[in-house]
Amino acid sequence: MDISKYLNSTELDTFNKQPLYLQISLLIADKIQKQIFPSGTKLPPERELADLFAVSRTTAINAYRKLEQQGLVWTKVGSGTYVAQARDLESLSEVPWPQLFTAYPQNPLASILRDLVSTNTPGTISLAAGMPDPALYPLETFTELFNRNIGTVPPADFGHIPTEGYYPLRRAIAAMLSEKGIPASTENILTLSGSQQGIYLLSKVLLEPGDYVVMETPTFIGAIQVFQAAGARVLSLPYSEKFSIELLEDFLIRYRPKLLYIIPTYQNPTGRVMPEQERKDLIKLAKRHRLVIVEDDPYSDLCYGEQPPQALKSMDSYGGVVYLGTFSKILFPGLRTGYLAGPPVLINRLALEKQFIDLHSSNIAQWLVTMFLNEGKLAEHLTKVRREYKKRRDTMAKALQRLCVKEIDFTVPEGGFYFWCKLKQAGTSQQLLQAAAKNRISFVPGEAFHTVPTPDKEFRLCFTTHNETVLLESVQRLAKTLTQITKKNKDNDAPPCSVWPII
């Protein structure tokens, strides 16, 4: 949980007669009592808390001491300050809910997906969530389609439908995939409540605790969390300009993993595109070992230059590639409509699992997307958003080059949503994020995308959510933050002491 998100939006009242330490303690106590900070939550270190509220470290220490006196927190020397176990459960709830919950991974980043899509603090520019711009949602087209066709649709289409999905949409998706070189029919398609549901269903159907899964690192946060929650043991393929076929083959021989999860086109978060020859080599290796490949492809329609190679699924000669797609990135996330393409035996098993979750995805959303596809509206919309997002990418790249190039390295993606950046100087992306909050800008630190602990120098910026004016302002705020943190790190670099202390 990103605690700073819940604290940095509150400013202390310097004219209040209450001491600043007491204002801070009351603020934290309120969030503990409302269980926004549940038992066991690690609170920010004293120095970090002081920075969040722009107070002295002594004030932060006194705030924690007050909370400790109230029995709301406890301090472990060398580890930090934690929210205490509730002593008077009746004061919080008639039922001791936390004691009834099943075990859940105690990961400090466990809530990051929920945090990314939650409402932003007013005045803050968020470059965190991978969101298309709401101003570009094709709402007028959907409204016109709805009004023109609602009287002609059979009422039964809005009753219960097969768990596999609305048949006309599955047929339209199969046709769309066939145009991309992916042979498919309706029996190969399962519609989903967003492609994230597909990852979850695959984990339920294919994985048992202790099974091995291979993933690139860094990679999509949601996939990491789903596989870890399933109890899988993750084998990491470190990011490089060339996909490590040799390391993957070593994993296949040593561990016999159940599947490989990969985003080969405009990878999240790095933006990398796997070249065609690497794709062919991967398919050849996977076929030899009968490896299941989960190809997640949310961004390939959003190219701003040379067309990327064909999907891995189009090269699938052994029936082992499972293809995930979504309309969230190219239309709008609120549709909650994605799809999975795979062999019929897998589709049937996934549908059996899906029925326990939602029985079937939303009929109305599927019906609307069907009309959008069948009337040829997608090509026109993609032309519009590609043109606009390319301008935004170029605007942000020029601004980063002009204002931030001394402090960060970054890659300019050929498609997708993201810049992947790395700090050149001392400090971490977490420190940068906390400092950036004061300048009303947010992003995702790199550690969220890694399957194992890593030097925290990287961070991801989304360039599609805001227009060019806002993007320019966001880079100016980032540049200001980088200057501040660089100066602070220099000020903290004291020369080494040449005198031994007296013991």
TrEMBL record:
It comes from the Bacteria. Residues 18-86 form the HTH gntR-type domain. CDD domains: AAT_like, WHTH_GntR. Coiled coil: none annotated. Keywords: Aminotransferase, DNA-binding, Pyridoxal phosphate, Transcription, Transcription regulation, Transferase. The keyword Membrane does not apply. One of its GO terms (molecular function) is transaminase activity. The keyword DNA-binding applies. PROSITE patterns: HTH_GNTR. It holds the Pfam family Aminotran_1_2. InterPro entries: Aminotransferase_I/II_large, HTH_trans_reg/aminotransferase, PyrdxlP-dep_Trfase, PyrdxlP-dep_Trfase_major, PyrdxlP-dep_Trfase_small, Tscrpt_reg_HTH_GntR, WH-like_DNA-bd_sf, WH_DNA-bd_sf. In the C-terminal section; belongs to the class-I pyridoxal-phosphate-dependent aminotransferase family. PANTHER family: HTH-TYPE TRANSCRIPTIONAL REGULATORY PROTEIN GABR, TRANSCRIPTIONAL REGULATORY PROTEIN. This is PLP-dependent aminotransferase family protein. It comes from Desulfosporosinus nitroreducens.
